[in-house]
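Retro notes (design track)

What went well: tokenization of the new backbones is finally stable.
What didn't: we kept losing track of which sequence belonged to which structure.
Fix going forward: every design gets posted as structure first, then sequence, in one message. First example under the new rule, 326 residues:
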């Protein structure tokens, strides 16, 4: 029953997001008619299928990718505060995109492919630095890794921001720094769909390993899990998913922090169920956050990352206070 509710909620969120926008005369009735093949005008079809639908589809994939990435990092580090943005993985992906834009320019290759590869390289580079820096005596204290990620991520984010400010297109700068789905295209949807399918499948298959790793490295060793290999493989998958999301819409934080907690409360801690549940919840949450960002201050709207931060920051504060009080 919970899965049915989650799926219905996702469909409802997607439909609401499709109905919201600044185009006059394109409301729920027109959107429904366009989706079901009813009689509509050329304007309605253009708004629904050229503008809004790719934006909603990309938002669904971004939210799902960031959420699954958050599930992986929280399990590997056994820390409920871990997520791609706070660990520096998201800023690392942004730094990779920035470096590619400055160094390669208009190279003769698909831009989405260049951005994706550069984002993954940047995310992995930061992850390696953070985890290696925080390693002590063969173990990785979760709090130390998180603090190292925040420090390294802030440094990398500052460098990427400074480099982006040298670009002439200010709208492009703000898109990468604060997240933007308004320029979504179906090619981006296809690319991120492949990233999510591959990364999500690997994470789901390794779900039992994640269950054991949350109990600690010693317990994992006793059950036959190769801890070091599992850590880097699943950490790499987390970087892969986060980099894919950042490469398509810019830097969006807190989704990977909030959604896994909602998923555990509703579907339990087992990762075979938590991973697809978090993907569904994160997809719906980000689509609604994007719809909210478009309607709060029309026609410009608020940056997507501002809305997700406003929703996620109180959750982060609650988690920190709960830890201090326990």
């Amino acid at each position: 029953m919970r899965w049915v509710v989650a799926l219905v909620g996702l469909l409802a969120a997607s439909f609401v997001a499709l109905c919201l926008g600044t185009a006059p005369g394109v409301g729920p009735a027109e959107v429904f008619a366009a989706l079901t093949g009813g009689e509509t005008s050329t304007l309605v079809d253009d708004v629904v299928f050229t503008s809004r639908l790719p934006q909603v589809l990309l938002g669904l994939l971004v939210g799902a990718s960031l959420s699954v990435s958050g599930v992986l990092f929280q399990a590997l580090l056994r820390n409920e505060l871990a997520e791609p943005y706070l660990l520096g993985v998201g800023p690392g992906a942004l730094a990779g995109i920035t470096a590619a834009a400055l160094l390669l320019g208009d190279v003769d290759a698909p831009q989405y492919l260049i951005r994706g590869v550069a984002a993954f390289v940047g995310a992995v580079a930061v992850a390696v630095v953070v985890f290696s820096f925080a390693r002590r005596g063969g173990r990785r204290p979760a709090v130390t890794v998180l603090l190292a990620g925040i420090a390294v991520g802030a440094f990398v984010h500052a460098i990427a921001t400074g480099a982006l400010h040298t670009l002439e297109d200010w709208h492009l700068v703000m898109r990468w720094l604060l997240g933007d789905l308004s320029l979504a295209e179906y090619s981006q949807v296809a690319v991120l769909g492949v990233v999510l399918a591959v990364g999500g499948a690997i994470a789901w298959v390794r779900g039992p390993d994640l269950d054991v790793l949350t109990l600690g490295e010693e317990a994992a060793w006793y059950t036959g899990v190769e801890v070091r290999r599992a850590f880097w493989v699943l950490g790499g998958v987390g970087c892969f998913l986060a980099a894919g999301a950042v490469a398509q819409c810019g830097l969006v934080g807190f989704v990977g922090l909030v959604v896994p907690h909602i998923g555990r409360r509703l579907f339990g801690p087992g990762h075979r169920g938590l991973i697809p549940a978090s993907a569904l919840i994160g997809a719906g949450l980000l689509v609604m956050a994007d719809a909210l960002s478009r309607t709060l201050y029309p026609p410009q709207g608020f940056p997507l990352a501002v809305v997700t931060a406003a929703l996620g920051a109180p959750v982060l504060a609650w988690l920190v206070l709960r830890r201090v009080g326990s």
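Added context from the reviewer: The chain has a mean pLDDT of 86.
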